[in-house]
Write a structure and sequence with these properties.
globular; 35% strand; five-stranded mixed beta sheet; 24 strands; mainly beta; seven-stranded mixed beta sheet; 11% helix; 423 residues
Length: 423
């Protein structure tokens, strides 16, 4: 049975004594809350006082159940989808925690959470895995108060879980495609995903079924929400903005080209990095920069360039592009500078190496793809550990396993001592 952790979102914030902040107009409070970019900030904002809690709409509850995006009515009789949101947090110690600098390892702890019933109870995940943690060590706290630590949201992912109406179970592993979600409120939302055919599928609140967009070009690889709009990229690198009509109906005429194809790689991933939208082109095999002469040099030095160690370390390599909206093209990026990209089959996010990760090497891609032969065995390892995660250095093209770094593997596990000291 899966174990869960309670996460307290209460706040110790109090109104300043020189003013009665509880008397602010409700419409002003809601306007302020609308500018808060994640649910943690909204919850903390509402917890200041009862007047603020009454004035501000609580975080959106996700819609459920949803129909299956299929033309097969027989399949729909046995199940449907529920939509789940998972959030990646970077937790940092409070300023008052003693001896922070004496503790080896990163100053922060990165974790992915998924709220389940009852409210306030969460599953915990390694940020680059789909499998929740099923068991915890005895030292693991059963309550984590996010008001007592620094909590910075790095990214979100949405997952469509197949719910079997007959057995009453959900199976998130049965639907592996990326999901993007946009909403104005609880009654007005749109979901975008990739159909089994490779076409885009859209579901809008109030609709009875999904709409499959009949775009007859190449199959789509990834979808994302960027600056309040849906973007989708196909296997060639061609990217479109997906516009949804007021009635929820859409077709290929509502796909607006924003970037021409680049071809090349085997998989395309979209990720927001700062204010930019990036395309990560994922390649299988040996990097093109390794010429025949370089291979001969490796052999002359006594190294077998094609041995098992090389294959294990160099299954994937990457190229990065930035969107140029004006010229409708992808521009090659040779350096990410301070940025670190995190990629897996279901999620992509980024962080600053200096300000977020406090000294982690920038210009890197941390990844865990099932196509890499790693994510297939998540059930066999401790999901909070880092056995499957690799780090690709964009400047050198070198790949290493994260667990080989005793320092940076601690960003995920073990639990930092300051977490235990404040709960």
């Amino acid at each position: 049975m899966r174990r869960a952790v309670s996460i307290s979102l209460s706040s110790s914030l109090h109104p300043a004594p020189m003013a009665d902040w509880s008397r602010l107009p409700p419409e002003l409070l809601q306007d302020i809350a609308n500018d808060l970019d994640n649910s943690i900030y909204i919850i903390r904002f509402r917890s200041v006082c009862s007047a603020w809690r009454t004035a501000v709409i609580p975080p959106l509850r996700l819609p459920s159940p949803l129909p299956i995006p299929s033309t097969n009515s027989f399949a729909a009789q046995f199940g449907g989808f529920s939509l789940s949101k998972r959030t990646i947090f970077l937790l940092s110690p409070p300023d008052r925690t003693p001896n922070q600098t004496s503790n080896p390892g990163p100053k922060s702890w990165m974790v992915k959470t998924e709220e389940i019933a009852p409210a306030g109870t969460y599953h915990l995940f390694n940020p680059l895995m789909r499998t929740p943690v099923n068991s915890f060590p005895t030292c693991f706290p059963r309550l984590i108060d996010l008001s007592d630590v620094g909590a910075h949201e790095l990214g979100q992912e949405y997952v469509l879980k197949f719910v079997n109406h007959v057995l009453g179970r959900d199976h998130s592993s049965l639907y592996m495609e990326k999901v993007a979600f946009l909403s104005r409120n609880a009654l007005d939302y749109v979901i975008l995903t990739i159909h089994i055919s490779g076409k885009l599928a859209i579901f809008r609140s109030g609709a009875e079924k999904w709409v499959i967009i009949n775009d007859l070009q190449s199959p789509f690889d990834d979808v994302i929400v960027f600056n309040g709009k849906f973007y989708a990229v196909d296997v060639t690198g061609r990217m479109v903005v997906v516009q949804v009509g007021d009635n929820g109906a859409t077709d290929a005429r509502l796909l607006t080209l924003v970037a021409k194809p680049i071809f090349g790689g085997d998989k395309k991933c979209l990720v927001k990095s700062g204010k930019d939208l990036l395309l990560v082109d994922v390649f299988n095999g040996i990097p093109q920069d390794n010429s025949d002469e370089e291979l001969e040099e490796e052999e002359e030095e006594g190294d077998n360039y094609f041995d098992d160690e090389y294959i294990r370390r160099n299954t994937l390599w990457f190229q990065v592009f930035k969107l140029d909206v004006n010229d409708q093209k992808w521009v090659r990026v040779d350096r990410l500078d301070d940025r670190v990209l995190f990629l897996d089959d279901n999620c992509a996010f980024s962080a600053s190496a200096s300000s977020d990760l406090h000294g982690c090497k920038g210009n890197c891609i941390w990844y865990n793809f099932s196509a890499d032969g790693n994510g297939l065995f998540e059930e066999e390892v401790d999901p909070l550990r880092c056995h499957n995660i690799k780090v690709f250095e964009l400047d050198s093209g070198y790949t290493s396993a994260l667990y080989e770094s005793d320092y940076w593997s601690k960003l995920f596990w073990p639990l930092p001592s300051w977490i235990k000291s404040v709960v």
